[in-house]
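Record 1 of the preview.
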Amino acid sequence: MEPALGLQSVSASGCVYSNEAGLQRIIPSARTAYSCDAVYRTLEYLRGISEDDVRRLRARGIQHTNHLLHRTSLAIDRDRLSKRTGISAERLYEFSNQCTLLEVSGMERFLPLVRRLGVSSMKALRAQDPKDLHRKIVEAVGLAGAPSLSDVEYWIGQSSALDIVEEPEPIKPRAVIR
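->
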């Protein structure tokens, strides 16, 4: 028993926080061992994704944007998933870039606006000047509804750590033999 918390271990490992002990007993509002519904966005949140794309991805076990991000961060994984779903690797790359932007803390509310300003990937976010991006956001929504300059600086700071999507290799032209 953990006296400070009043929790009794019922797991073989002796850990009161173990999933064996039952997350539902520790956090009553949890419906599943990993309640992703409360944390991650559904695939329908992605801009440009069709119902058919969602159906194909879910058939491969991808339920949320975080699942998609981790299954498409490498070019080889995008190629493999493309063959299995029929969704082009280029579209999967675009979706994975959208998923990384959803991971930036505090930017979710401003994401549609930031996309309109030309920021569609972590690489593009990292290249932004914080003062310039903040000025553009203020011009678009007004000072009262805009994030603070420190918020924008924080977003750009996160972009280095969160940029896990591998860029596709450029296609090398083949020499024509005659």
